[in-house]
Amino acid sequence: MNPEENYIAINKHSWNNRTDTHLKSDFYNLTGFLKGETSLNSIELALLGDISGKKILHLQCHFGQDTISLSRLGAKVTGVDLSDKAIESACEIAKDTHADVQFICCDLYELENHLDEQFDLVFTSYGTITWLPDLDKWAKIISRFLKPNGKFIFVEFHPVVWMFDDNFDKIGYNYFNIAPIVETEQGTYADKDAAISQSYVTWNHSMSEVVGALLHNGLNIQDLNEFDYSPYPIFKNMTELDPKKFRIAHLGNKIPMVYAIVARKSE
Hints:
single chain; alpha/beta; 7-stranded mixed sheet; two-stranded antiparallel ribbon; 7 helices; 27% helix; globular
């Protein structure tokens, strides 16, 4: 199986394989979520503002915690993900929480075959674009589903982070998108000791590639911010500064960990 040609099947299997472990993990804290805790972080909450009554499309939603959290803020939300196992779990969680949300299981690039609406806001966050080979196609999807003057809110791990090896001791990967990265891992970011393993195919995307793709598809950048911490302890050698603020211990605030973009579709 050629990884580049078959990345969708490989990555779908990878995410299906992780889902049960993620549902049971402290990382996702499903017990607290079912009791009403939000899965959204301060970075995206500040960017979202008042979303009551807004129609939101949530891309690459995994098993829907952020989708449901957005709906709890008064939005009408549709979540999309490649993993059928994750979407099945999302539908169960939505039922358990009485959330009025919609979920679609498909490859993101095929979304037009499954949905024919436009939204006030498109949202995606944390570890999403690394699974996509072509950001121009990604930005076209965002533009297609935004209403004129609609807003795109994007929070993602910084491309500098993905340059380092697993221990953050040296540069291990190219900053630029030059080739697919094919790897196999033991465990998963939500439970590094889990008795699972999976292969996956990812791509690194530079800041200019992201911004350029949005600009070329009629999305005007209104805000761009970088953050010297991560809300999640998904990397090795992390230390917690404050609740939900983590850094690589030996690097401190020397590197950006996360960035956020707000863009608006032309009228």
